[in-house]
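Colleagues,

Please find the record for the two-part complex below.
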Amino acid sequence: GENVEQHPSTLSVQEGDSAVIKCTYSDSASNYFPWYKQELGKRPQLIIDIRSNVGEKKDQRIAVTLNKTAKHFSLHITETQPEDSAVYFCAASRSDYKLSFGAGTTVTVRA
Amino acid sequence: DAGVIQSPRHEVTEMGQEVTLRCKPISGHNSLFWYRQTMMRGLELLIYFNNNVPIDDSGMPEDRFSAKMPNASFSTLKIQPSEPRDSAVYFCASSPLHSGNTIYFGEGSWLTVV
């Protein structure tokens, strides 16, 4: 089955700086790559996703890039703010199968 | 839409007791998932239903765990008998069509087994 690895496990950044989280996956048939944000005590919520027919997608301060050849994808958060502090999960799946999640990255934005 | 609705939100029970967690998926979604989240193991998929039929239950840890989906708007996850190591947050999630689409999580059921 799919194996998703996520790095780093923790990330501390100064407010205003950028944060980058990287994930790799094992199943070359995977074609859907969402990112979820989970605030303390809350549920994971989708923040952005990308499908294999595109290489990059942006939504305001967040962007995701995908390299299908290397089987890795990344989340970029620019101009970080305190409310960006949370645990971020990457995931991957084939169109007809279950999502496999990474282990999560705890992001702390220092004021 | 109210989103995925789970109950109870919090439960504390004694070891050996039966625990039943409930979920109402988003109307129109035909895929439903039960996840367990712990610090040690992260988010684990326990079972996945599509059109009320269990498709993959390979994540169910042992026979003490069972899940049902009697209709499109209701699912249960049962643990009998419960053990302290079952303490975790259990999330129900739903998705339109197949799992290769966005899944939406409920608020979770926080289970503590003492």
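Chain B touches chain A through 18 residues (CB under 8 Å).

Comments are welcome before we finalize the supplementary table.
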